[in-house]
Amino acid sequence: MTRAPLPAAPVPKAELHLHIEGTLEPGLAFRLAERNGVPLPYAGPAELAAAYAFTSLRSFLDLYYATMAVLRRAGDFADLAQAYLGRAAAQGVRHAEIFFDPQAHLARGVPLAEVMRGLGEGLAAGGERFGVSTGLIACFLRDSGPAGALDCLHQLLDYRGQIIGVGLDSAEVGYPPELFADVFAAAAREGLHRVAHAGEEGPPGYIWQALDVLGAERIDHGVRCLEDPVLVRRLAADQVPLTVCPLSNLRLRVARSWADVPVREMLEAGLLVTINSDDPAYFGGYVDDNFQALARELGLDDDTLRQLAANSFRASFLAPGPGRAAPDRLRRAAPDGQRPAAPDPQGRAGTPARDPG
Ligand code: HPA
Ligand code: ZN
Question: Which CATH superfamily is domain 13-331 in?
Fold first, then answer.
């Protein structure tokens, strides 16, 4: 009797653009709602999932912030983190640099101590269980303004050892990166990595500001860079990583159809593209689902998919680079063959993760 071949294992990869609150699956949301006595305005998980029909970033954010109301205690954040790592590992993720939104929890009266303890415990236990190394990146909500971001950074510094960097997310248009110059400068003085969402819905000028005013080491999304050829040359020359999220772009109408998902164009322009899931519980797939969709919808071949996976390790903060210090917890190496052989212009590539000891 002949057997069908086993499906190929997903290619090992790092995930660099993932909001932990965006991994809240409807089933877990309802379990936490019950555990915490927080009502959700839906009859059940299926009805909640049916509400995931977004027309813009804003329409998604409204539901995303409303649903995270069920996250109250450290144990909730720990369950969320462990659930993500289990799913991610099954999709080939070996390393994840994970965003969280402290201000969204503080605004609901959830103490930062609960958030940090829960994420810390969940990532440690899940990382061990599923074989995924992790780092946490705290994002400032741009629509809460620069003063709110500075206040948030000061609170985060009590947990300095638990975070590797800061980011900038939430509603983009009308909140240019330059508003956040001071808080990013303060984060840099603390030795934190800096990344920023830019060029998702906002114009290419926001990407310039993220680079030149905030000192962003990676650009999250960045797909609108293609509107500015000078910017594309800069991003390519400096090999600035772009964390692209195809299923997110489709669900939030950043791209109208697969023909508008510019991964091929970005690769052809010599950009350091990585593929990520953003808010997978809301956007219809985890990171390997994004890889598979690129193969199916854009016809990307196996070599290109392997290149995208290799890029993810190269673009991670595991890779040594100027001013980069890989903390102990990030030392678990990428699998052999996932690090590029040749150094890039920033000297990030070609050596294993720096041993800080
Ligand atoms: N963009 C901006 N902010 C976000 C996103 C996103 O895709 N997901 C969660 N916060
Ligand atoms: Zn995002």
Answer: Metal-dependent hydrolases (3.20.20.140)
